[in-house]
Structure of non-specific serine/threonine protein kinase:
Amino acid sequence: LGFFLLDNCSSSLSFGYQLEQMLGHSTYGKVYKAVACQRRAQVAIKVISKRKALEEYLRELLSHHIQVLKGLHHKHLITLYQAIETTARHYIIMELAPSGNVLQRVQNEGPCPESLAGHWFSQLVLCLAYLHSRAVVHRDLKLENLLLDYQDNVKISIFGLPRRVSTREALSQTFCGSYAYACPRILQAQAYDPFLADTWSAGVILCALLLGCLPFDNTNLQRLLQQIQRPPVFPSWQPLPQDCKDVILRLLCPASQRLSAQEFLQTPWVSRFLPPGPLGDLPSATEAPETQSSSCSFGDPLPPASENL
């Protein structure tokens, strides 16, 4: 995509793009739906104001995130097309996911049928296994970061806190993400395996898909810390097959018992929803990340947006 933007950030952007409606906003910028005029292709453009953003974020984090994303290509990952810096702003041009996000869908429609939950979750795990095989951790997996394309397939948004891990054994001490999706060691401010932190977050997502609610109460940190130490209790009003429960129990468990993303692809329940044929993007078994309680009940409503750490 050829690209040049004027710094007044008007709706008509010279040399290539026409901004349409705003899709969302964050602390430092806004995301717009836009059209590449020459090709009539729709894209999303994240506009980050240098005036509003912290200097450290612009100097270190943003450039690091862009470098991490440059070489990543997966059918269930939002594609980065181009990043442009001008005197006043950064512009991140990326693939548009036109059907909203999974959080909106669950809030509007309630719990997903098992077939849909399995379809979306298998796509999430496929992409997560791909990222982990390339030593990239997401660090902010949550329902609102699972976007949907025209055919309602999952596209993971990773334009927030991705990180490339230098060695597989390295523990992380950066505490980021969202309370409701954070693994126990993050909430306890202890060093943690970032790969297994991602798979914990995937477990919270799977519960929310199947039950229409969060597995843990994120409105009170002390209560949350107590709940995550114990295995989840499955509600009687939403019967789930045992092989599905087994997946959740191997996600929301101590890190020493938690499976890697690739290992979850081999479980009976997840494998039922995988596309037929070879999974060419997956790492080999030797490349897979290594793996390292009062009962909590499901029932907390999904928030409009997750509270960040």
Q: What stands out?
A: The longest strand covers residues 17-25. The two ends are 35 Å apart (CA to CA). Residues 1-9, 283-300, 305-309 have pLDDT under 50 and may be disordered.
